[in-house]
What does this fold into?
Amino acid sequence: MVKNATKSFCRLFALAAGCAVLFSALSNTDAFHEPDLIWQDQSPNQAKRSLSKRDLPNEPIKILDIKIKGKPVQLNSEMAGDEDWLKGFYLKVKNTSSQPILYLSFHLRFREDSSSQVLLNHQFSYGRPPVPDAPGEPKLLLPGDTAELTLSDRVYDSLRGFIEKRVPSANIRSADIELSMVIFEDDSAWVSGGWMRRDPNNPRKWKPIQ
It folds into this structure.
């Protein structure tokens, strides 16, 4: 009788130990997956985003580096991002021409996807346009030198406010950049793929170079 009681006790002990091991394993499994659940809760607007560039003939500027929020970004590829995925947009460019540059500008276009219409076209620049009363600080980018262009948080917040009057900012999943204008020290300019020269009678007017 004592022997049978001992056997029963052993069976109960083994069963309890097995349950404890199973409970421990399940607890460890839950702990392993918990960070993923937390990450999903904290980033509800994570989605695939894309940044592309439209190339034009004879561009005198080369893009060396693109970063968003301090992280390198590749053009024409998808990335994960939240609704503020373009905040902290940064470009590093190089003057690949043989002339000093006074001013250059890029278009940054916001879209819901790559095939949809442009919701906002923002122009950001380096240097000061060489026209009377133009705002900005005079700068000179020599041949072979580099310059940095950054979309400030203040400007970004203003752009986001404008976009949200039309669609939620989380809907912006595509953007593209395009070199818009480069003005050289000799009063010539590259404009959207063509060459122009300032009108000597009107400093605000440019004529195509034949």
User: Anything to note?
Assistant: Residues 48-208 form one domain. DSSP finds two helices and twelve strands in the chain. The chain has two domains: 1-42, 48-208. The chain has a mean pLDDT of 81.
